[in-house]
Design brief:
mainly alpha; two-stranded antiparallel ribbon; 476 residues
């Protein structure tokens, strides 16, 4: 199964480059999504399946990450079927677009399944190179600026992570391996000063890819300028891939007896991320940038959850699932808004519910999901984190956490309400009438499915899925 999930996209990419046909290319992206979800499900839930090959394996830590990637990619591929129909570019560019999507997903899949820190580092860099083209795809002035900013900041981050890996290797002494299992086995004997320094470099390096403040600067521009299906993948899957590498490095720190040191740094970066999102989301003018700052906020919440430990680990996994589904839905719906209004500016969009009821109500529902409105899965995860803070008597941190989340909720909420329920002018109504045929039924299905899941999982989590979630939380 692992061979299938890694080799199939290479074959598909070759076919896409040879057969430059828009329909064929789009359906190859869809076929890879189906193969990915089937193989991932068999790996996670099946029995007697191949669980490892050299340098790649499925374990308790990465199982839920792989499932989330597979499902979100499938939803994005479905949406992309309708989205590509509206792109008036040569077949060659669609071929390159489809090629890079599959390489991007392959790179993230490899990162999640990697059993070696060095391989993870290489594949994280591969995600940068493949997604940079996708961010630049529209070839506007802002798109090229966003792509260069993304490549520049993430390259600096990956260089910092490389320095961290070197320092980790120095601290490990005679352990000449970057295999995670061997690092865990010998971590107790590592040289702690070098290990602590290595953790800082790797946290800032991989944290840049995850979107943690203060190394988050690429994220608002890239998410805003990328095509909406790519924005959904960046926010809902790429950030998770970098987060998993940080989780594995954090576990090395735990085994080495540096847990408190690592938790303090993660807590600081987590709250700084919340603060940055709070400041910028309150005066937002571009609704896609608003969603990007929401991603920074939620990555901060994940970092805080890891720093808290205990029950918060379970909350982290729930939050990761809920955020991926809700944010992917939000970004895909923003794609519908853009198709209808031809603008990313908040002040240019009003009366969305009147203009297109399905898009308007999905916009509102996505907001409710991402802001942890009951019964959203994020309500459960954030409730558990607050409970952990109170149980551990972190009263000040709990108050700051709740205050920052409330301000962010208000900032996003007033934009969403204005866009959804404001007055629709006659000029805008005529524009909508012209553009409405650009939003096909393919561009509603994915959001509907993901939103249903977010709110249902907040009430009931099937036992098979809950077991995987508990195993992942236990492996942190």
């Amino acid at each position: 199964m692992i061979n299938t999930i890694l080799i199939f996209p290479i074959i598909a990419c070759i076919l896409v480059l040879l057969i430059k046909n828009k329909t064929f290319n789009t359906w190859m992206v869809n076929l890879y999504a189906v193969v990915h979800i089937v193989a991932s499900s068999l790996l996670v839930f099946g029995k007697n399946t191949e669980l490892s090959i050299p340098y790649f394996a499925l374990d308790h830590t990465n199982a839920i990450f792989l499932l989330v990637l597979s499902f979100v990619y499938l939803m994005v591929a479905i949406y992309n079927t309708g989205y590509v129909k509206n792109i008036d570019v040569p077949a060659r560019r669609i071929s390159h677009y489809s090629f890079m999507i599959m390489i991007f997903v392959l790179s993230m899949t490899g990162t999640l399944l990697s059993t070696d820190l060095g391989v993870s580092w290489v594949l994280i860099e591969a995600t940068t190179l493949s997604s940079a083209y996708l961010i630049y795809f529209n070839k506007t002035k802002h798109a090229i600026e966003a792509a260069w900013k993304y490549v520049f900041i993430c390259s600096i981050g990956i260089a910092m992570a490389f320095v961290g890996i070197i320092l980790l290797n120095v601290s490990s002494g005679d352990v000449n391996s970057l295999n995670f299992a061997q690092l865990y086995q010998h971590a107790a004997s590592f040289d702690l000063p070098f290990l602590k320094l290595a953790f800082i470099f790797m946290l800032f390096g991989f944290g840049a890819k995850m979107g943690l403040a203060p190394v988050h600067f690429w994220l608002p521009d890239a998410h805003s300028e990328a095509p909406s299906p790519i924005s959904a993948l960046l926010s809902a899957t790429l950030l998770n891939s970098a987060f998993l590498v940080i989780v594995r490095v954090f576990k090395i720190m735990e085994v080495a007896g540096c847990t408190n040191y690592a938790r303090i740094i993660l807590m600081l970066m987590g709250f700084l991320s919340l603060f940055v999102a709070t400041v910028f989301v309150y005066h937002i003018k571009n609704y896609k940038r608003m969603l990007a700052y929401s991603s920074i906020e939620n990555m901060g919440i994940l970092a805080i959850g890891i720093a808290l430990g205990g029950v918060a680990y379970y909350a982290v996994v729930l939050h990761l699932i809920g955020h991926s589904l809700a944010k992917a839905s939000f970004f895909l719906t923003s794609g519908n808004v853009l198709e209808l209004f031809n603008s990313k500016r908040v002040k240019s969009v009003s009366g969305l519910v009147t203009a297109d009821g399905k898009t308007g109500w999905m916009w509102v529902a996505s907001f409710l999901a991402i802001c942890a409105f009951p019964t959203s899965l994020l309500f459960l995860s954030e409730f558990l984190m607050i409970k952990t803070m109170l149980t551990e008597k972190h009263y000040v941190l709990c108050a700051i956490f709740a205050l920052l989340l409330t301000i962010i909720l208000f900032g996003i909420g007033r934009v969403v309400i204005k866009m959804a329920f404001g007055e629709l002018s006659e000029d805008k109504a005529k524009l909508i009438e012209t553009n409405k045929n650009r939003v096909s039924y393919w561009m509603y299905i994915s959001q509907f499915v993901m939103l249903i899941l977010v709110f249902v999982l907040g009430i009931y989590i099937p036992n098979c899925l809950n077991e995987v979630i508990k195993m992942t939380a236990g492996a942190f």
